[in-house]
Amino acid sequence: MGAVYEARHTKLDKTFALTVLPPGFGSNAALLSRFFREMKAVGKLDHPNIIKATNADEWNGTHYLVMEYIEGTDLSVLVKERVVLSVRDACRTIRQAALGLQHAHEHGLVHRDINPSNLFLTKHGQVKLVDLGLAWLGGDDNANAGLTSNGTYFKSLVWVRGFWVFAF
To answer: Which residues are CB-contacts of 144 (< 8 A; sequence separation ≥ 6)?
Structure first.
C-alpha cells in the first residue's frame, strides 16, 4: 500500500526497511486505518519468523513504519521462477512460517493474507512473515471492522495440533 525503501540510519550506521504512505493517502481514512493496523500488529510481535518493527510515526503529514531490513526474496519469486525446494527445505520453510503464525496467534492476531509474496526467505534460509495490514486483532472489533468478510481468513489456514497450517 505504501512505498518501501531501503533506508540507512546514519547515526546507528544500520539499514532498515522504511514503508511510507504516498502523499495524499493520509486523507484516505480506509488506507490510513490499514496502515495503522499494520503498525499495531507488527508492534505487538517479537519472533524470529516475523518481520520486526522498530518505529512508527508521522512527520509533516507523512506516515511511516520502520522495520528490520531483510536480504533475500519472497517466495512468490521462487514460485514464478519454478524453483523446486527439496523436501527438507520445503518442510523447514513451512515450519518456520507456522511458528511465526503460532506466535501471532498467541498474541491474538490472525494474519489473513498468507501467500508466497508475504513469506520472505532471507539469504540465510530464515522465513519472515511480512505484511500484517489485514491481520485480525483479536477482540478489537473497531480495528477489525470492514477489512474482509467474516470467515475469509480461514480459507487458507487450518489449525492442526497447535499449529496453523496452510497451502499455497
So the answer is: 136, 137
- Asked if residue 106 and residue 157 are part of one domain, the reply reads yes
pLDDT tens digits, one per residue of 48-66? 999 888 888 888 878 888 8
List the Cα angle 123/134/130 in 5-degree steps.
10
The range of the structural domain enclosing residue 18 comes to 3-68
Catalytic-residue membership of 141: no
Catalytic residue among 113, 131, 140, 141: 113
Q: Are 89 and 155 within one domain?
A: yes
* pTM of this structure: 0.70
| C-alpha distances in Å from residue 50, one per residue of 44, 58, 83 | 11, 23, 23
